[in-house]
Amino acid sequence: MRSTMMNFPLTLDHVLERAGRLFAKSEIISRLPDRTLHRHTYADFHRRARALGGALQKLGLQRGDRVATLMWNHYAHLEAYFGVPCAGGVLHTLNLRLHPDDIGYIANHAGDRFLIVDDVLLPLYDKFRAHTKFETIIVVPLAGSSVPAEYENYEALIARSTPLTPVALDEDDPAGMCYTSGTTGRPKGVVYSHRSIVLHSLATATTDYMGVSHADAVCPVVPMFHVNAWGVPFTAAMMGSKMVFPGPHLDAVNLLDLYQAERVTLTAGVPTIWMGILQALEKEPARWRLVPGMRMVVGGAAVPESLIRAFDRFNLHVVHGWGMTETSPVGLVSFAKRELGAMPDDARAALRAKQGVPLPFFEVRAMGAAGEAPWDGTSMGELQVRGPWVAASYHDLDAESGQWTPDGWFRTGDIVTIDAAGYVKITDRIKDLIKSGGEWISSVDLENALVGHAKVAEAAVIGVPHPRWDERPLAAVVLKPGMTATAEELREYLAPKFAKFWLPDAFVFVDAIPRTSTGKLLKAQLREQFQNWDWE
Ligand code: AMP
């Protein structure tokens, strides 16, 4: 028997039309470089995204052509998110925090034809332009500055353009691409399809995961150049939510002001952002009136239990999720399943600090040396995943095909346990696990515990070569402003929580811990710094 259902493509033009028709009055607020707020509605967004698509088509955009963006989070970037793929192009968001040479390499590797760039980022573009081959540069006059004559002015293009000529899009057509931020090696490109973005948006929007509603005011702090801001702009447009964009102002005070002014109910970003916000709130607890229960989606790096509890005290709700560039990115979100019943606050916080349970259509397994590890919460293995928004290859990089297993699973490189209820907990990246006397030590667990100490702001634990034990853990610790602490004090604090051989043999107090452009600890750099550590 055959089904009698329509073969209806899952494409972003549907989302754009829906947004324009059903939610024309929903608001889009953007913080500009001069800190003023720019206000648009979905009706503006719909009209301008179509005009951008039309303008690109007039400039010669062909199906499958890459259009790069070098932009902060704001209304024009949102227009590119839809205008480019709906005109048949591929939106390639460049990570402006990378080294200019890397940005140039990535733009060339992707074969980008066009570039849309914020006027305030032109100085950055100048640093790598000599090595790139963009045919047309379109400048968004965000700061109101005049656009150099050799470039197209984004606003002028939109004003004189006609709406895009509809393209018969296939759901498997490429719609966007993003390069991994990578803590080692050259960045690798992942190409998203219309279908993968649509399905990712539908799944993340569901109540138990991100729970995105038309009634939400959604503020993606995570950059739109980092895995599509975790898909939030696509999801919010699909649901008709108010969108609030922080532009280039990502410091805690500006964000808190924005949350308060625009009554934000749902926001998203990496842990470093929230650590800053927490410090600002603790310093001036009465300064801001935020929407009670505001949800903060946190991912990209492990979220310490102490952070979750600290925000609970301000009636702000951390939603911990896990993802990767290769998984669009969201694959896991932690929420307390009803079957687990009532539990004490401690147990609930520990559960929420796990990376979470898989979204529908996202399958997981932990592979150990002896095959698939049981879901018992203690057996460790490499997390392998598959699903309709998981990459099947890298763009133009056949040498990396070993990242996929012969039976079609993607190897994440994360070491995890999975418990009987399906909660995945990351213990480490494969390359960060510490091996001491033949036993594994989880650096992530030690770090999460250390930041629970009242004096500790940040911590990174690495394995350092040791003549007797192969490796021993060393903790690099940043103390909170004005605090002092001793190694003994921190060791004593950890002692009740861990086996004795897990406790770091050295604590080094540092001013800052190196991080990648997307907030991950740069352990390779730390390992290099401490490789000749004298254990005597
Ligand atoms: P990226 O592709 O740059 O987003 O990096 C993906 C990697 O970030 C994952 O493989 C994890 O190692 C790490 N990561 C992402 N989310 C989390 C999380 N919630 N907890 C711990 N690590 C995470």
Give the % helix: 25-40%
Identify the CATH class of the largest domain: Alpha Beta
Radius of gyration: 23 Å
Alpha carbon gap, first and last residue: 75 Å
- Residues in β-strands, percent: 15-25%
Rounded mean pLDDT score = 94
CATH evolutionary superfamily of the largest domain: ANL, N-terminal domain
Largest sheet: 9 strands, mixed
- Can you count the beta strands? 26
Number of domains: 3
Overall, the morphology is globular
Q: Which structural class should the secondary elements be placed in?
A: alpha/beta
- H/I helix tally: 16
* Low-pLDDT windows of residues: none
Strand order within the widest sheet?
A: 2-1-11-10-12-13-14-15-16
CATH architecture term of the largest domain: 3-Layer(aba) Sandwich
Which fold does the CATH topology of the largest domain refer to? Answer: Rossmann fold
